[in-house]
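Form 7-S
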Amino acid sequence: MPIWIVIGLCAAVLVLIAAVATAFGFVRGGLDKPASSAPTKMLPDPATAEDIDNIRFSLGFRGYRMDEVDAVIDRLRDQIAAQQQQLAQRPTEPRSGQEHDPGAGGTSSADQP
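Output:
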């Protein structure tokens, strides 16, 4: 029997053994919690634009830790919603230089008799 067939059969048997061992729980796989090489800087409450510039996320297996990014986005969403609600509740006042003139109904003084 040629040697490459023997090597192929041995490799197939090893793969089969590994698959069975994993299926029955003899081999435990998975990734450990990612270790952070830089300290995580999250948002203070309330956040400013400078705080957002200073956010730092820990690196995970495929990039940033999704749970940290989701937490920051959730907080920003809540703060923006609260600010929008506060703005909606404020009474509307004309801006300076844009006072409403009740007599300016689209007619000029030259049009009036």
